[in-house]
Amino acid sequence: MKVQSPERFVFTNAFEVRDYFATRRASGCKLITTNGCFDILHAGHVDYLFKAKKFGDILVVGLNSDDSVGRLKGPARPVQNENDRLLLMGSLRMVDGAFIFREDDPRAFLEILKPDVHVKGGDYSRDILERKVVERHGGRIEIVSFLQGHSTTSIVEKIKRS
User: Fold this and answer.
1) Looking at residue 81, which CATH number applies to its domain?
2) What residues contact 40, with CB distance under 8 A and at least 6 apart?
3) Are 74 and 39 in contact (CB under 8 A)?
4) Which of 9, 102, 129, 137 lies deepest, with the highest CB count within 10 Å?
5) In the 8-state DSSP scheme, what is residue 35?
6) What's the CA gap between 162 and 142, in Å, rounded?
7) Rounded to the nearest 5°, which phi and psi values hold at 64?
């Protein structure tokens, strides 16, 4: 585990996250999870994460590994490597923990963390593949709206045009 500040941590895996927050969860704190590539951090990401944090006490972000991002977004991605993305995510004040996951979807880490709430962006519906895992452990899915006009893909395209 690497400490980014006295209150912010990045973790090597979901098991470390689970163990680190176990005492707080046992005392009634609600765990919120979300996941994504977060390749080029932008205002839309920050808005999304602030909205996600409102659903509970502990916000943990699973970041897709570099290999996973490449499979999901194409061979030119990610723009930033997973260690840099992890450092940036772990430094945000609304994020209580972050880690890299290697699978293409978050179901494996959701089985470990058993969140009270799993948050996805407005381009998803409540009927996502994570739903069964989250609900089986008593959690729920929340969909939050995107900040219009902000996406990593649009930023990358704008850079290419310039």
Assistant:
1) 3.40.50.620
2) 79, 80, 152, 155, 156
3) no
4) 9
5) E
6) 37
7) -60, 140
pTM, whole model, 2 decimals? 0.87
Residue with structure tokens 């409102």? 54
Provide the number of structural domains found in the chain: 1
- The backbone torsions φ and ψ at residue 146, rounded to the nearest 5 degrees and listed phi first, read -85, 155
Answer for the pair 118, 80: CB distance below 8 angstroms, yes or no: no
One-letter amino acid for residue 29 of the chain: C
Question: pLDDT tens per residue, the chain (162 residues)?
Answer: 444 443 458 999 999 999 999 999 999 999 999 999 998 888 999 999 999 999 999 999 999 999 999 998 889 889 899 999 999 999 999 999 999 999 989 999 999 999 999 999 877 666 799 999 999 999 999 999 876 766 666 666 767 688
Which residue shows structure tokens 């707080």? 24
